[in-house]
Every structure is written in structure tokens, then in C-alpha cells.
């Protein structure tokens, strides 16, 4: 099969991103360009992402970001094999901006469109960076998502567990806000934790030992708040100790829940080639350290894309687009943006090929 060159567009949250990726016939890939415009500054004063501000910022900057990605790759639209965009899940205003732009480009340049699920893109990134074969266990931990997923093929995702309340990144962000640390909270909490005493506060580890690998973070967040109230006003050392105790609890929770998910996979007869860590929380060194050990203890290895590919980016969308296109999975221009789009509802290669009558890897042009 010949090489595929995909443009990928990401606008589901507060990153406006575009990238060009090449996928070779042997299944390996190369990132030709990867441009990310972060809106962090636009949202910082609100302590979180404001959907209307995000959508407007995507509209203003996306064309420019795409132009830069194409220029950096040294390619024009005619040379591309297809245009991929994140079609959800995410903040709907932003998703509409990205997907509509991709449709316009696909129509104007007569290229196939691939509507990519943002979570699927996180899941498949490790195949680009680490050539991880199927099956693998995905731990997706970001500001919006906390999921453990058995990945058995492109489009074949089985959610093993998720959070019943807050996402882990969200818990980092809320803890930071509560303790007067800047947004985004993850890096700030990690920095403070390095200087703190993790044994000072006994914080809960919700759902520890439960047989289904779900997460619950709100009780931990509340416990941090109660401890903070008890010793208020907080000095710098108090904040550092609270951050260290909070992070230690998160690390324990992750270790226990991932061990549980590895067990569940084994029970289902699946031997994971890797534990893949994705999402912004994957940048946390303490989290990485413990998961290395958990993976090794479970007879597998930890695969973590580099930080710039763990957080939201266009390369993961372009790569997922290429992985889908290589299997004949392309979309019509009538495909809808989706605020909610669980991994289990993604079309897989096998189902797609038979249901659409697509011709496999050779399929070109938007299917309808
Ligand atoms: O994947 P991401 O960039 O965006 C989405 O949420 O989709 O993840 C951002 C999240 C934020 O909640 C941020 O606080 C968290 O990842 N994060 C971290 C660290 N860096 C980012 N959490 C813990 N430790 C970090 N070093
Ligand atoms: Zn994400």
C-alpha cells in the first residue's frame, strides 16, 4: 500500500492544533509538522476553560495554524491523501469549527474526510510513537477524561472502567485552585509536591481494591479541602504538604486501578503488549514512575508518548485519520460533530468495511 499523507485538525478543547503525518504502507509513521496554539492564557483568569471563549479563539486562529502546519511540512493541499478532524467528544463550539473547516478543505481539494474520535486519537498515538501492536491497555487521564480501555484494533475499544465523578486532571486543577495555585493545576501541584511531605495528611483512596477498575475522585478532593480548612490560613509548607499528600493518593489510586484493569484483561484472554499512558496527567513524573512498575509487575511495559503528544495535538488526529483511512474508513461530508461520543460507539474496520461496502485500503473519496 502506498503512503498516506494526512492533515489533522484538533479543536475539541482549548488547543487549536493542526499537523501533517505520513503513514507508510508498513504501518509506521512520521510527523512532518505539528503546530499547537494553546489558549491557556485566554482561560487562565477564569481558572478553567470557558467554552465560548474557546470557540471564538478557534475561529480566529485555525486557518493560520493549518497554513503553518502545511508550510512546515512543505506540502500543499493537492499533495494530501485526506483531511482528518476531531469530530468529538468535546466542547461543541470548538468541534464545529474544526470539523466544518475540514469539510470545506476536503470539498475544495477533492480529498476524503476522516472524522476522528478524539479519544481514539489519544489511544492510537502510541502506535505512531512506540509501534505498539494490538492488544494494549490504554489509561487515558486528562482534564476531561479518566478511562481504562482495552484496545484490540482500530475502532475496537472496550471501556473497562472510568470515573464516576471528576476526571483526574480535573481533580489536580480543582486542588490547585483550592490551594491558590495557578491554572492549569497539574504542573503546579506536581512542583509543590516535590517540596512537600506526602505523609503529613492521611487522605482517602476511593474504590481501592474494588473488582471493577472505576475511579472516584470527589471524595479525595473534599478531603483535601477539609484538611486545608482545619489548618487555615495556609503557609507555603502547608500547601506543599497538601499537594504531596494529594499526589501520593492519586498515584496509589492509579496503581491499584491499573492493576485491576490488567487483571480484567487477562481474565478476558487478552495479553496486553503495553500499558499506554495518554492525556495531560501523563506528563506527571510520579504517575509515570509508578505505572512503569505496575506495568512491569503485570508482565508488560509502559509506553508513554512524549509530553507534546500526550496533551492535545493535531498529529494524533492526523495519525488516527491515517490509521482509519488505511482500513477504508472515511466519512461523508454530512458527518455530524458530537459533544458526546463514547469509544464504544466508534465504527471499526471490520464493521465499516462490510456495512459500507468499502473496498478496504484502496477506498478513496468520501463514502456516504
Ligand atoms: O490532555 P490535556 O492537555 O487536555 C484535556 O484535558 O483534554 O490534559 C490537561 C490536564 C489538566 O487537567 C492538567 O492539570 C493535567 O492534564 N496535567 C497534569 C500535569 N500536566 C498537565 N496533571 C498532573 N501532573 C502534571 N504534570
Ligand atoms: Zn485530549
UniProtKB/TrEMBL annotation:
<keyword id="KW-0819">tRNA processing</keyword>
<feature type="binding site">
    <location>
        <begin position="140"/>
        <end position="144"/>
    </location>
    <ligand>
        <name>substrate</name>
    </ligand>
</feature>
<feature type="binding site">
    <location>
        <position position="186"/>
    </location>
    <ligand>
        <name>substrate</name>
    </ligand>
</feature>
<keyword id="KW-0408">Iron</keyword>
<feature type="binding site">
    <location>
        <position position="118"/>
    </location>
    <ligand>
        <name>Fe cation</name>
    </ligand>
</feature>
<protein>
    <recommendedName>
        <fullName>tRNA N6-adenosine threonylcarbamoyltransferase</fullName>
        <ecNumber>2.3.1.234</ecNumber>
    </recommendedName>
</protein>
<keyword id="KW-0479">Metal-binding</keyword>
<feature type="binding site">
    <location>
        <position position="122"/>
    </location>
    <ligand>
        <name>Fe cation</name>
    </ligand>
</feature>
<dbReference type="GO" id="GO:0061711">
    <property type="term" value="F:tRNA N(6)-L-threonylcarbamoyladenine synthase activity"/>
</dbReference>
<comment type="similarity">
    <text>Belongs to the KAE1 / TsaD family.</text>
</comment>
<dbReference type="InterPro" id="IPR022450">
    <property type="entry name" value="TsaD"/>
</dbReference>
<feature type="binding site">
    <location>
        <position position="284"/>
    </location>
    <ligand>
        <name>substrate</name>
    </ligand>
</feature>
<dbReference type="GO" id="GO:0005506">
    <property type="term" value="F:iron ion binding"/>
</dbReference>
<dbReference type="Pfam" id="PF00814">
    <property type="entry name" value="TsaD"/>
</dbReference>
<feature type="binding site">
    <location>
        <position position="190"/>
    </location>
    <ligand>
        <name>substrate</name>
    </ligand>
</feature>
<dbReference type="GO" id="GO:0005737">
    <property type="term" value="C:cytoplasm"/>
</dbReference>
<dbReference type="InterPro" id="IPR043129">
    <property type="entry name" value="ATPase_NBD"/>
</dbReference>
<keyword id="KW-0808">Transferase</keyword>
<dbReference type="InterPro" id="IPR017861">
    <property type="entry name" value="KAE1/TsaD"/>
</dbReference>
<feature type="compositionally biased region" description="Gly residues">
    <location>
        <begin position="359"/>
        <end position="368"/>
    </location>
</feature>
<feature type="region of interest" description="Disordered">
    <location>
        <begin position="344"/>
        <end position="368"/>
    </location>
</feature>
<keyword id="KW-0012">Acyltransferase</keyword>
<keyword id="KW-0963">Cytoplasm</keyword>
<comment type="function">
    <text>Required for the formation of a threonylcarbamoyl group on adenosine at position 37 (t(6)A37) in tRNAs that read codons beginning with adenine. Is involved in the transfer of the threonylcarbamoyl moiety of threonylcarbamoyl-AMP (TC-AMP) to the N6 group of A37, together with TsaE and TsaB. TsaD likely plays a direct catalytic role in this reaction.</text>
</comment>
<dbReference type="InterPro" id="IPR000905">
    <property type="entry name" value="Gcp-like_dom"/>
</dbReference>
<dbReference type="GO" id="GO:0002949">
    <property type="term" value="P:tRNA threonylcarbamoyladenosine modification"/>
</dbReference>
<feature type="domain" description="Gcp-like">
    <location>
        <begin position="30"/>
        <end position="319"/>
    </location>
</feature>
<feature type="binding site">
    <location>
        <position position="173"/>
    </location>
    <ligand>
        <name>substrate</name>
    </ligand>
</feature>
<feature type="binding site">
    <location>
        <position position="312"/>
    </location>
    <ligand>
        <name>Fe cation</name>
    </ligand>
</feature>
Amino acid at each position: 500500500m502506498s503512503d498516506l499523507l494526512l492533515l489533522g485538525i484538533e479543536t475539541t478543547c482549548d488547543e487549536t492544533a493542526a499537523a501533517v503525518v505520513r503513514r507508510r504502507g508498513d504501518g509506521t509513521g512520521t510527523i512532518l509538522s505539528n503546530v499547537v496554539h494553546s489558549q491557556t492564557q485566554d482561560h487562565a483568569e477564569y481558572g478553567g476553560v470557558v467554552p465560548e471563549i474557546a470557540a471564538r479563539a478557534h475561529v480566529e486562529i485555525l486557518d493560520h495554524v493549518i497554513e503553518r502546519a502545511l508550510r512546515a511540512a512543505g506540502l500543499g493541499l493537492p499533495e494530501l491523501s485526506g483531511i482528518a478532524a476531531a469530530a468529538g467528544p468535546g466542547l461543541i463550539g470548538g468541534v464545529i469549527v474544526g470539523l466544518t473547516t475540514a469539510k470545506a478543505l476536503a470539498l475544495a481539494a477533492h480529498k476524503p474526510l476522516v472524522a476522528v474520535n478524539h479519544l481514539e486519537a489519544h489511544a492510537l498515538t502510541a502506535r505512531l510513537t512506540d509501534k505498539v501492536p494490538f492488544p494494549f491497555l490504554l489509561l487515558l487521564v486528562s482534564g476531561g477524561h479518566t478511562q481504562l480501555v482495552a484496545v484490540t484494533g482500530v475502532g475496537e475499544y472496550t471501556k473497562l472502567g472510568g470515573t464516576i465523578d471528576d476526571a483526574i486532571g480535573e481533580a489536580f486543577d480543582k486542588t490547585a485552585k483550592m490551594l491558590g495555585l495557578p491554572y492549569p493545576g497539574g504542573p503546579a501541584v506536581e512542583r509543590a509536591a516535590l517540596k512537600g511531605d506526602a505523609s503529613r495528611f492521611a487522605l482517602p483512596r476511593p474504590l481501592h481494591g474494588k473488582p471493577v477498575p472505576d475511579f472516584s475522585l470527589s471524595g479525595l478532593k473534599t478531603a483535601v479541602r477539609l484538611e486545608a480548612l482545619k489548618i487555615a490560613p495556609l503557609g507555603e509548607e502547608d500547601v506543599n504538604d497538601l499537594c504531596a499528600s494529594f499526589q501520593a493518593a492519586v498515584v496509589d489510586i492509579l496503581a491499584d486501578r491499573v492493576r485491576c484493569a490488567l487483571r480484567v484483561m487477562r481474565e478476558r484472554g487478552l495479553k496486553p503488549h503495553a500499558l499506554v499512558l495518554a492525556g495531560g496527567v501523563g506528563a506527571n513524573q510520579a504517575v509515570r514512575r509508578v505505572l512503569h512498575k505496575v506495568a512491569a509487575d503485570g508482565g508488560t511495559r509502559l509506553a508513554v508518548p512524549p509530553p507534546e503528544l500526550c496533551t492535545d495535538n493535531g498529529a494524533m488526529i492526523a495519525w488516527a485519520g491515517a490509521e482509519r483511512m488505511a482500513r477504508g474508513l472515511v466519512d461523508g461530508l454530512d458527518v455530524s460533530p458530537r459533544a458526546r461520543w463514547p469509544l464504544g460507539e466508534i465504527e471499526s474496520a471490520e464493521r465499516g468495511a462490510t456495512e459500507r461496502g468499502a473496498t478496504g485500503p484502496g477506498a478513496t473519496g468520501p463514502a456516504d
